[in-house]
Structures are given as structure tokens and as C-alpha cells.
Design goal:
There is one protein chain. The chain is an alpha/beta fold. It has two domains: 9-190, Thiamin diphosphate (ThDP)-binding fold, Pyr/PP domains (Rossmann fold); 203-328, Rossmann fold (3-Layer(aba) Sandwich). The protein has helices at 13-27, 51-55, 67-79, 98-105, 108-111, 141-144, 158-170, 220-224, 228-231, 249-259, 274-286, 308-314, 318-328; strands at 8-12, 31-35, 60-62, 83-90, 121-126, 151-153, 175-180, 187-191, 203-206, 211-215, 236-240, 243-245, 262-269, 295-299. Strands 3-2-4-5-7-6-12 form a seven-stranded mixed beta sheet, sandwiched between helices. Helix 2 (51-55) links the parallel strand 2 and strand 3 (60-62).
Length: 333
């Protein structure tokens, strides 16, 4: 290895996110973290473990169990010139702060005639696959992507877990980061000098010629694991959306224009989902490039079951992706 190349570190998604928060705290005295159990407990998913001991209770703030209150406090702090990171334990609890997020954070810039920005970052865990039943298995990032005035990030890789936060903190407007719960233990190599990444561009994680698999967050790994497609002679391109608002429509359409087929993999429910929006944009922007109708692989339209075998049946999986693509391609196997 060349002496000027920084060797990668073996780490996890959880640790990459922790390092991103730590770096932000070190870099900017205006940054602080607040939320339920982020301090003494170290975070419900151990992302903030050790930060209270290093930075103290002024910058790692445990809050009362009131999402509306502490999200509102985060909005106020942002208005006052701070750079708050607000952690909501799981996405379902964000529903208790909808008024603050939708009616305040997303609208104050517009309602003030451009006078007041809200440089607020809200992190939350999303997704199913951990037997937490219907209460804690929602995938509501597509809902939030419907709302003008906020950005919606869905980091699915170690690089994005490490690099998206700092870019989000530099944004003058509210940014919501959705971290899929099954990714926290994801292991991989991350360059020691990993830095900020863009938050408005999709990424082609694997190039291909026959079909575009368009996905994000917790289902990116499933799309990449669909190796059986290669055995069937199908060369699948995998597009990681990374950001749901604003959607990088250009990358989506460029991919579909090359492959002429699209399958959207989305853990959200099918009806009114982000996959429906992506499908509509493909039809509007690349209809005459398609050799087959757009297909979608989504979760079953049910509250998420607790029983493991039923939860598995309700979620998108590698085999459902393979089956959908194979039927689209005329089952080359």
C-alpha cells in the first residue's frame, strides 16, 4: 500500500454514526445532541454511548419523554443560532411531534417571508425486521418525503452514515435522517479520513444493463444480494436513492434509459408510497424508453406482525426481488 493512502478501518454503521456526531461536536460549538436516553443510557441503539462523558450534559442532553416538547425546543434552538441534533427513538414516536415538524420546522422559512431558517437535524430509527411488532416497525420516511420544506435522508452505507450528518448540519433548513434499525450492526471498512458527502444525489451501487433496481435504506442490501439474477443471465443495476426529498430524478431516469426496465424496492406500504412517486416520475420522464411496465416490491399492507415468520412474510426479501425481476425478464433461468 502506498504511504500516502490512509488505510481503512473496520467498523460498524452504529460506530460510523457515533463518529459523525462526535466530529460535529468537536468541530462546531453550536452543535449539541438532545433526545430520550441519549446521555446516561448512551442511546436506545447505543449510537451516543460515551458522548456524555466526553462532552458533558450541556451538549448531550437527556430530555423528558415528550417528542413534541423536545422537537419544539430543537426548533427554538435552531432559530437562536444553534445547530441541534434531535434524536427521536423510533419513527413511530415522531408522529407525536408532527405538528412541530410539519407545521413549524417545515414552514417557518416560508411563513416568515424568508427571514428565519431552521438549521435543525432530526435523527430517527426506521424499519422492521427486529420483531418489534406494529408499534415500532414503521417505514414512514415516504410520508415525510411528501412535505415541502424538509430534506429526507436514508443512509444505507457506512460512508453515508459517517458523512451525511455534517452536510446536513451545514444545511440552513430542516433535515430528517432515517436510520434503518437492521443496519446498526452492519460491518465494513471505512477510510479513516472519510468526510462529508453530498445529500442531494443518488448513487449507482452496481452498474448493469438489463434492469434498474431502485431502492434505499434497509432494502439496499437485499437488492445487492440478489445474486441469483446473475445466474439467470440478468445484469441488474442497483440505484441507491440515498435522499427521498429531493429525489434525484435525473439519476433514476438515466438508469432506466440505459436498462429499459425498472423494479422499485421499498419497505413502505405500496399504497401512496415513495415507490408510487418514483414510478410516476419514470412514466412521466422515460415512458418511451420502457420495455416493460414498472414493477414494485413493497411490504404487505398490514400492521407489521410480531411473530418472526409472519414478519418475514410481510417484508420485501431477496427472493421476492428475484422473482419479480425474473418474471419481468421472461424468466431467463
Amino acid at each position: 500500500m502506498s504511504a500516502d493512502v490512509t488505510p481503512p478501518n473496520r467498523t460498524t454503521y452504529r460506530e460510523a454514526m457515533r463518529q459523525a456526531i462526535r466530529e460535529a461536536l468537536l468541530r462546531d460549538p453550536r452543535v449539541f445532541l438532545m433526545g430520550e436516553d441519549v446521555g446516561r443510557y448512551g442511546g436506545c441503539y447505543a449510537v451516543s454511548k460515551g458522548l456524555l462523558e466526553e462532552f458533558g450534559p450541556e451538549r448531550i442532553r437527556d430530555t423528558p419523554l415528550s417528542e413534541s416538547a423536545f422537537v419544539g425546543a430543537g426548533i427554538g434552538a435552531a432559530l437562536g443560532g444553534m445547530r441541534p441534533i434531535v434524536e427521536i427513538m423510533t419513527v413511530n414516536f415522531s408522529l407525536l411531534a408532527l405538528d412541530q415538524i410539519v407545521n413549524n420546522a417545515a414552514t417557518i422559512l416560508h411563513m416568515s417571508g424568508g427571514q428565519f431558517n431552521i438549521p435543525l437535524v432530526i435523527r430517527m430509527t426506521t424499519g422492521a425486521g427486529r420483531q418489534l411488532a406494529a408499534q415500532h416497525s414503521h417505514s414512514l420516511e415516504g410520508w415525510y418525503a411528501h412535505i415541502p420544506g424538509i430534506k429526507i435522508l436514508t443512509p444505507a452505507t457506512l460512508e453515508d452514515a459517517r458523512g451525511m450528518l455534517w452536510t446536513a448540519l451545514q444545511d440552513p433548513d430542516p433535515v430528517l435522517i432515517f436510520e434503518h434499525g437492521t443496519l446498526y450492526n452492519l460491518e465494513g471498512e471505512l477510510p479513516a479520513d472519510a468526510s462529508a458527502v453530498a445529500i442531494d444525489k443518488a448513487a449507482v451501487r452496481r452498474p448493469g444493463d438489463d434492469v434498474s433496481l431502485i431502492t434505499y435504506g434497509g432494502t439496499l442490501g437485499k437488492a445487492l444480494q440478489a445474486e441469483e439474477l446473475s445466474a439467470k443471465g440478468i445484469d441488474a443495476e442497483v440505484v441507491d436513492l440515498r435522499t427521498l426529498r429531493p429525489l434525484d430524478t435525473a439519476t433514476i431516469l438515466n438508469s432506466v434509459t440505459r436498462t429499459h426496465r425498472a423494479v422499485i424496492v421499498d419497505e413502505g406500504w405500496r399504497s401512496g408510497s415513495i415507490s408510487a412517486e418514483i414510478s410516476a416520475r419514470i412514466m412521466e420522464g422515460a415512458f418511451y424508453e420502457l420495455d416493460a411496465p414498472v414493477e414494485r416490491v413493497c411490504s404487505a399492507e398490514v400492521p407489521m406482525p410480531y411473530a418472526k415468520h409472519m414478519e418475514e412474510a410481510a417484508l420485501p426479501h431477496v427472493h421476492t426481488i428475484v422473482e419479480t425481476v425474473s418474471l419481468m425478464m421472461g424468466d431467463r433461468g
